């Protein structure tokens, strides 16, 4: 998501900003920009797309005297990814970069517009710079104007502001979005995480919520609620990879923990007034469709399968799902009124891309759900919804799966709205559950510790069966896939009701059953299926909010007011189980043998 870099000192500022922003690229962004004041001269550059585009625009610019500089990578939330919407945002003579969301920006914007301020962008951020200039006009005191500005803001922010009114100072504030200060001799750095300043700064201070202040040559004044605060610096780590992992052992582990946060990003701007709204879908896009077909591979196929239950249940529309590599060669019958959806984390999976081309050739409308903007699948589709998970480095997909699932759930509700298949009350239930999802995804120390201890009992045996019903069947498939990908143990996902039609023959104490037992969906049915396995001595790990006596091991979940909340909480449990087993087996969690992150061959 968005990233911030800032610098005050004598070094070449353009390079510090561009290098720093490149370090934040892994978070995902769709435009970037920098603003520099040196010798009272203000320079500003912005570009849509990659940092390379910004580099190209600034190739004839240099800035190596004393000066102040701010830079930003933007992931569009309010307004499209255009140069006008890219940060830094300009007032008359000041620039601002901002991460987070100013919740009361519409109210502030109206107030400023009434006073004659002209807005150039569609962003929430622009109000900050205009407020600053309004207060500066009144007081001619830049710090006082900055303080007045932040006192008007509601929501989350990390802000850097520079102005021609005070060409030797960077103003900063943090509330709810990360920001840190870096120090090296007289040089002062700012960043939204430490990777951009590793190798540059030697010491660091991580700002707390509510802190703000200003930096000038070699010094920083820091405040909290009007009181000056002492800065306690600490040494900055020197290893970039370690820093990118934020202290986690593996990227996959970090990505599991990130799921709660990225889920909020997936929803931002898409839930308005108790309705789901995707600006990517124009008003008529879904009008003529009478059925849905989804093609995907691997983990993305599992979200597709889970969503088919939601589309049929909530939007009452037929939904078929196919593995892309099978679809390609079966000579499928395609109907022009079918919406063709492809799902892909990377947007480059060869089989999925080919399936999409076939559907387009047959005249179907196409929609892709993808984590990588401008990827081949996104470009090939009529339209795309981005999942906003940020770059996923672990080969075993976690947060991409979670955000795909959220987008599909939201889409099924949007279709339900459009087709009038959901009452107002049902829609509110779904939306309330969506808003609760980030909570269900929080990894607690107790849970992680328990799975770490449990994992040592599940390192042998002749196989794992993950079982579930309804949407928990695709989740069982996904749990099994996660385990096999990184532990190299044999695991299968199975519909719980199917076990007695064959696989139960394998049951003995060396067969491990991971039972997904949601309280809010078919609990009694799955309970009977697990009892059948227990009677045949299978070793059972039950995951449920309802205590289950026959389980050998039990993980108690908390969020059972809606099946999707149970889905997401159980997803985290299965991910952590796979992670801990793999670590105990000494495997390379992030780069498992024989697998690639992006499968561009068929
Ligand atoms: O990038 P895609 O989502 O299209 O990739 C599809 C599969 O290759 C991918 O989901 C694979 O199964 C992952 N390794 C799952 O963890």
Commentary on this structure:
This protein has 602 residues and is α/β, with parallel strands linked by helices. It has 3 domains: 3-244, Glutamine Phosphoribosylpyrophosphate, subunit 1, domain 1 (4-Layer Sandwich), CATH 3.60.20.10; 251-433, Glucose-6-phosphate isomerase like protein, domain 1 (Rossmann fold); 445-584, Glucose-6-phosphate isomerase like protein, domain 1 (Rossmann fold, 3-Layer(aba) Sandwich), CATH 3.40.50.10490. 35% of the residues lie in helices and 25% in strands. It has 17 helices and 27 strands. The strands form 5 sheets. It has an 8-stranded antiparallel sheet with strand order 3-2-4-1-10-9-11-15, with helices on one face. The chain has a 7-stranded antiparallel sheet with strand order 5-6-7-8-12-13-14, covered by helices on one side. A 5-stranded parallel sheet has the order 19-18-20-21-22, sandwiched between helices. Helix 10 links the parallel strand 20 and strand 21. Helix 8 runs parallel beside helix 12 (399-419). The longest helix has 22 residues, at 563-584. The radius of gyration is 26 Å and the shape is globular. The protein binds 5-amino-5-deoxy-1-O-phosphono-D-mannitol. The site of 5-amino-5-deoxy-1-O-phosphono-D-mannitol (M6R) has 15 residues, from helix 8.
SSE inventory with pairings:
Layout: E1 3-9, H1 13-23, E2 31-38, E3 41-48, H2 51-57, E4 67-74, E5 89-90, E6 94-102, H3 105-114, H4 126-139, H5 142-151, E7 155-163, E8 166-175, E9 180-184, E10 187-191, E11 203-206, E12 211-216, E13 219-224, E14 227-229, E15 234-235, H6 240-244, H7 251-267, E16 271-272, E17 275-276, E18 291-296, H8 298-314, E19 318-323, H9 324-327, E20 338-344, H10 350-361, E21 365-370, H11 376-380, E22 383-386, H12 399-419, H13 424-440, H14 445-455, E23 463-468, H15 472-487, E24 491-495, E25 511-516, H16 523-535, E26 539-544, E27 553-556, H17 563-584
Parallel strand pairs: 18-19, 18-20, 20-21, 21-22, 23-24, 23-25, 25-26, 26-27
Antiparallel strand pairs: 1-4, 1-10, 2-3, 2-4, 5-6, 6-7, 7-8, 8-12, 9-10, 9-11, 11-15, 12-13, 13-14, 16-17
Helix pairs in contact: 4-5, 7-12, 7-13, 8-12, 8-15, 12-13, 13-17, 14-17, 15-17
């Amino acid at each position: 998501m968005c990233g911030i870099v800032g610098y005050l000192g004598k070094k070449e500022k353009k390079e510090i900003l561009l290098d720093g922003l490149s370090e934040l690229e892994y978070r995902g962004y769709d435009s970037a920009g920098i603003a520099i004041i040196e010798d009272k001269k203000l320079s500003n550059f912005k570009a849509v797309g990659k940092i390379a585009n910004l580099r190209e625009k600034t190739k004839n610019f240099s800035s190596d005297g004393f000066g102040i500089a701010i830079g930003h990578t933007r992931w569009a939330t309010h307004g499209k990814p255009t140069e006008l919407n890219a940060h830094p945002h300009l007032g008359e003579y000041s620039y601002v970069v901002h991460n987070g969301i100013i919740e009361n920006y519409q109210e502030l914007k109206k107030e400023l517009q009434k006073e004659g301020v002209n807005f150039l962008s569609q962003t929430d951020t622009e109000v900050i710079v205009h407020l600053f200039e309004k207060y500066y006009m009144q007081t001619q005191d830049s710090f006082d104007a900055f303080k007045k500005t932040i006192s008007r803001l509601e929501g989350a922010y990390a802000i850097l502001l520079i102005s021609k009114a005070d060409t030797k100072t960077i103003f900063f504030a943090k509330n709810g979005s990360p920001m840190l200060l870096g120090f090296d001799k007289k040089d002062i750095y700012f960043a939204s995480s430490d990777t951009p300043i590793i190798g540059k700064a030697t010491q660091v201070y991580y700002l707390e919520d509510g802190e703000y202040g200003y930096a000038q040559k070699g010094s920083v004044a820091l405040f909290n609620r009007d009181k000056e605060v002492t800065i306690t610096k600490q040494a900055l780590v020197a290893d970039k990879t370690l820093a990118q992992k934020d202290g986690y052992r593996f990227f996959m582990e970090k990505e599991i923990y990130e799921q709660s946060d990225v889920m909020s990003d997936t929803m931002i701007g898409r839930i308005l007034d108790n309705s789901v709204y995707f600006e990517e879908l124009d008003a008529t896009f879904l009008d003529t469709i009478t059925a849905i077909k989804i093609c995907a591979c691997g983990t993305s196929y599992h979200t597709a399968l889970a969503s088919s239950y939601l589309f049929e249940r909530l939007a009452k529309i037929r939904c078929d799902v196919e593995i892309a590599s099978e679809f390609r060669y079966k000579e499928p019958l395609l109907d022009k009124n079918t919406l063709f959806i492809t799902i892909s984390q990377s947007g480059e999976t060869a089989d999925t891309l080919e399936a999409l081309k076939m559907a387009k050739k047959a005249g179907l409308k196409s929609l892709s759900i993808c984590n990588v903007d401008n990827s081949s699948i996104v470009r090939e589709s009529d339209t795309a919804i981005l999942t906003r998970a940020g770059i996923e480095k672990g080969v075993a997909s976690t947060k991409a799966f979670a955000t795909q699932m959220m987008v599909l759930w939201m889409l099924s509700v949007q279709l339900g709205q459009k087709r009038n298949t959901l009452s107002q009350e049902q829609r509110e239930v779904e939306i309330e559950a969506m808003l609760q999802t980030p909570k269900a995804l929080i990894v607690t120390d107790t849970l992680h510790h328990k799975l770490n201890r449990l994992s040592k009992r599940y390192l042998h045996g002749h196989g794992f069966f993950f079982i579930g019903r309804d949407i928990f069947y695709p989740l069982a498939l996904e749990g099994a896939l996660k385990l096999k990908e990184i532990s190299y143990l044999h695991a299968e996902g199975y519909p719980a009701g199917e076990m007695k039609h064959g696989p139960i023959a394998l049951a003995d104490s060396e067969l491990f059953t991971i039972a997904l037992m949601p309280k809010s969906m078919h609990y009694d049915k799955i309970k009977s299926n697990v009892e059948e396995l227990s009677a045949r001595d299978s070793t059972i790990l039950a995951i449920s909010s309802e205590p289950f006596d026959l389980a050998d091991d039990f993980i108690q979940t908390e969020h059972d007011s809606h099946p999707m909340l149970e889905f997401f909480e159980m997803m985290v449990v299965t991910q952590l189980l796979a992670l801990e087993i793999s670590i105990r087996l000494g495997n390379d969690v992030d780069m498992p043998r024989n697998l690639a992150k992006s499968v561009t061959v068929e």
